Amino acid sequence: MATVWAMARMNYMMMNLTQSAGFSRYASSRGTSTSPDSPYSGYSGLNTGLAREYAATSKAFDTEFTSTMNALKASSDKLKKLDFDAVATAPAKETATEETPERSEAMEVAVAVVGEFAKDYNAAIDFFQKNAHGSNRMTNLAGRFADTAYRARAFTKIGVNVDAAGKLKVDEERLTTAIREDPGQVENLLGKGGLAGKADTHIATAQAQQSRLFSSILSAGSLSFGGYSSRGGLSGASSFSQWGNLLNYYI
């Protein structure tokens, strides 16, 4: 069965709908209610369980999108506020010895902030990659967030490893050493002029497109659903269903 995202794909919207649920499920509905629970009542054939499921999925997408972007923005703001020079010169804990040099409290905070940012950045990558097939916009955003890979070698030197998908993994000991030895380099790579600043740009780009990332069931594709519930619509549904089966073989 085609996924809800597959139904949202511009070129295959109607094909997947007819293949997944059958034309009769749409043609049988002739709702006229104006209730908020029947958002598609004015469109013949759309006031159905599947349409409501689509709307619920769209709402869930928006909720997850907002949560993911807000979490990353909060982490990015914390990272931009870090003064790595101050962290590097902060006094060690009294319990530190030459054999077991402990991190200062400021260093522990800094390492934790970088770790939190990495976690939230990875969550954003996962979100966009998971939904990348939904639209060209989603694919583009997935690529934007994965662009950390192009500076993987530089990030690795300061203890932030980057995998092929662009996801981050913090090596705390190496990061600690990098902050102590060259806080300026860490700031340049991770601060407002580096990864944190780039994350802000990606977030702003994504948020500007939020309303167009998950198309409504009425606007997805350039097809009018009224034409598929009117006379002659059923004869075309068979063709769409066959195409849907063929396309699903490759999707």
3D structure, described in words:
There is one protein chain. By secondary structure, this protein is mainly α. The chain has a domain at 70-211. It is built from 13 helices and two strands. The chain has helices at 4-8, 13-21, 23-27, 49-81, 84-89, 105-130, 136-145, 152-157, 172-181, 183-190, 195-208, 210-213, 233-250; strands at residues 160-162, 168-170. It has a two-stranded antiparallel sheet. Strand 1 and strand 2 (168-170) form a beta hairpin. The longest helix has 33 residues, at 49-81. The model is unreliable at 1-34, 42-46 and 218-251 (pLDDT under 50).
Average the pLDDT over all residues and give the rounded result. 75
Order of helices and strands: HHHHHHHHEEHHHHH
> Which spans of ≥5 residues are poorly predicted at pLDDT below 50?
1-34, 42-46, 218-251
Order of strands in the sheet with most strands: 1-2
The secondary-structure class comes to: mainly alpha
Largest sheet data: 2 strands, antiparallel
Individual helix count:
13
From the N-terminal CA to the C-terminal CA, the straight-line distance is: 11 Å
Number of strands: 2
Judging from the principal axes of the Cα atoms, what is the shape? elongated
Helix content: 55-70%
Radius of gyration: 25 Å
Portion in beta strands: under 5%
How would you briefly describe this protein structure?
The chain is mainly α. The chain contains 13 helices and 2 strands, in the order ααααααααββααααα.
What distinguishing features does this structure have?
61% helix; mainly alpha; 13 helices; single chain; disordered N terminus; two-stranded antiparallel sheet; 251 residues
